[in-house]
Amino acid sequence: MDFLLGGCAATCAGFFSNPFDVIKTRQQLHGELLARAGQPPGPSAATPSNPYSSVVRSFRSILRSEGVLGLQKGLVSALAFQFAMNSVRLGIYQTAENCEWTRGATSAGTLVRSIGWGGLSGVVGSTVACPLYMVKTQIQARSHGKYAVGYQHRHTSTLDALTGIYRTHGVRGLWRGYPGIVTRTAVGSSAQLATFSTCKELFAQLDWARESVALTAFAASMVSGFFTCVFMSPFDVIATRLFNQGVDANGRGLLYRSVVDCFTKTLRAEGLHGLYKGFVPNYWRIAPHTILNLTFWDQFKAWRDLYYG
């Protein structure tokens, strides 16, 4: 039941956060490996040729080129990824909490164990859902003309993408870029679940928090979303680029060989800014998604306990 509730909570949250996921993906891929000549430092430096220089401009560009449905590009694969990944991730973490494996002798010990279990659950979840994340990224990146960024894959649907990749590169092709998502999810999951659990315990000592499960989860999620975004953003950029790059006839990436190769090439060409591209929409995606995901999760568990004891 814990696995099912985790998946359902993430799917509900994913519907609302997907437009920011599309914008984040476009910003992370725009200007890939191009030096920022003449640009001042900062995550929102705009150029006339950049249709994704800000969140507002990104919304306008997508609406102008693809209409309202463009903001929900890759929704099917995104929701499938959220369900597959978080049913496993949150289910494992909840099981660890139920067995008190996340509890230490001290508060510091509890935090360390929470980080460890959060990372482990994220690794297992991302392993299961890796192909869906790759397809989601490739579909979200697809556009046309001056709005196109990165390598343009020609998938017509999630099923078409999965079957096409399998026919061309086999099972191995479906897990191409796997180290990128494992690193991303391990870091993000550790930060998210550890800070969420810690904040819930701290807020539970306050009178206003004890009156509402949803309010406590909402407040803890706001803090958790911030820390998740700060720690995960560089690895999120790397995962996006690893998954979206074109491949040769042998299935090897045309731009990057590994996580380390992608990290060093991005840092060398674009500086630290390159590793934090899409930070603002990423936070706008992560914060509401974390709030909705973990709030739905806590609320679903409360309803389960109420009706099933």
Automatic annotation (TrEMBL):
<dbReference type="Pfam" id="PF00153">
    <property type="entry name" value="Mito_carr"/>
</dbReference>
<keyword id="KW-1133">Transmembrane helix</keyword>
<feature type="repeat" description="Solcar">
    <location>
        <begin position="109"/>
        <end position="202"/>
    </location>
</feature>
<dbReference type="InterPro" id="IPR051508">
    <property type="entry name" value="Mito_Carrier_Antiporter"/>
</dbReference>
<keyword id="KW-0812">Transmembrane</keyword>
<feature type="repeat" description="Solcar">
    <location>
        <begin position="212"/>
        <end position="303"/>
    </location>
</feature>
<comment type="similarity">
    <text>Belongs to the mitochondrial carrier (TC 2.A.29) family.</text>
</comment>
<keyword id="KW-0813">Transport</keyword>
<keyword id="KW-0472">Membrane</keyword>
<protein>
    <recommendedName>
        <fullName>Mitochondrial oxaloacetate carrier protein</fullName>
    </recommendedName>
</protein>
<dbReference type="InterPro" id="IPR018108">
    <property type="entry name" value="MCP_transmembrane"/>
</dbReference>
<feature type="repeat" description="Solcar">
    <location>
        <begin position="1"/>
        <end position="99"/>
    </location>
</feature>
<keyword id="KW-0999">Mitochondrion inner membrane</keyword>
<dbReference type="GO" id="GO:0005743">
    <property type="term" value="C:mitochondrial inner membrane"/>
</dbReference>
<keyword id="KW-0677">Repeat</keyword>
<dbReference type="InterPro" id="IPR023395">
    <property type="entry name" value="MCP_dom_sf"/>
</dbReference>
<keyword id="KW-0496">Mitochondrion</keyword>
